[in-house]
Specification:
32% helix, 307 residues, alpha/beta
Length: 307
């Protein structure tokens, strides 16, 4: 089903209410591509079973074999920055991480790794998030982040503020990188999603906070090695109290997975799904201004699916 046909179906039937976070005026009225590409630019899949939604999304994107080749080393980069249980909405769903690892193995990956540079104590965050256990059971090498010796200095040519960074060796060595953020509120940037999740591969994140958080998030995307695929966990979305969450945090159950290669466009779609305008989040506009992704969904082939 073509993009415009699907939008019309949503507006004409009962699905409009159930998919209301994705049926925003900006998303519906974005100009469709003159000629749909072989594979969609973005896929949004709704369903209470996140793993089934992921499978359907990966299939729609052309299969994991499009992104991972036999013999490659793959890094799966979730958000596991907080010593909070999976139900807390602060970290990526561990079931998504485990399933992505299985799909990478099926595509012929030689090795699958995983890490994050948490804000909470890393051992507690790895354990309480549930990701370490799920990933290890799926055959993933879960690596520690705690020593500066794991990070390599790189130059960020073209960044406006961020001109160099120390990046984890697993990120540098990976043949393919799958970025798996959780969509949630963030007290500093307003929103945390795909672009911001890459702060977890950098050693000195304090530089970001001291010198312009939004611009540094955007600047890092100038570095030529970027995620091969972005998979957003938008199942139970934290609306306030992020990024860690508080006792009074509120949530919206979207039951969605959003996939795409353009990390800026993925964050645009995620912002709309969150119920906000992308322009409300400075780092998204800054990334688009740097030319590292599209700040508008106009002209993109977007598929909306259900399981």
């Amino acid at each position: 089903m073509k993009r415009r046909t699907f939008c019309a179906t949503l507006l004409g039937g009962g699905l409009a209410a159930s998919l209301s976070p994705l049926v925003s005026p900006q998303l519906l009225h974005a100009a469709a591509p003159a000629r749909p590409a072989a594979f969609p630019d973005l896929v949004a899949v709704q369903g209470s079973d996140s793993v089934a939604a992921l499978d359907k999304g990966i299939e729609a994107m052309g299969g994991m074999g499009r992104f991972v080749k036999p013999g490659q080393t793959v890094l799966i980069k979730p958000n596991m920055g907080w010593a909070v249980s999976p139900e807390g909405g602060a970290n990526t769903n561990p079931l998504l991480v485990a399933r992505l690892a299985e799909l990478c193995r099926q595509a012929g990956a030689k090795k699958v790794t995983c890490f994050d540079n948490p804000c909470d104590h890393w051992e507690s965050a790895y354990r309480e998030s549930g990701i370490e256990k799920a990933a290890t059971a799926a055959g993933v090498v879960v690596a520690p982040p705690h020593s500066e010796g794991y990070y390599q200095a790189v130059q960020i040519s073209g960044g406006k503020i961020l001109h160099q960074a120390k990046v984890h060796e697993l990120y540098m060595e990976a043949d393919a990188i799958i970025n798996v953020p959780v969509l949630k509120h963030h007290g500093g940037t307003g929103l945390s999603c795909a672009m911001k999740n890459l702060m977890g591969v950098v050693w000195d994140r304090k530089f970001y906070h001291r010198n312009g958080l939004d611009q540094c998030i955007a600047d890092f995307l100038v570095y030529p090695k970027q995620p091969t695929l972005n998979v957003v966990d938008a199942k139970r979305v934290m609306l306030n109290g992020g990024p860690r969450g508080r006792a009074d945090s509120q949530f919206k159950v979207l039951d969605m997975v959003i996939l795409g290669q353009d990390i800026v466009a993925v964050d645009v779609a995620s912002a709309l799904s969150y119920g906000a305008k992308p322009e409300d989040f400075r780092y998204i506009a800054m990334g688009a201004a740097l030319g590292v992704g599209k700040g508008s969904l106009n002209g993109l082939d977007i598929r909306r699916l259900r399981v």
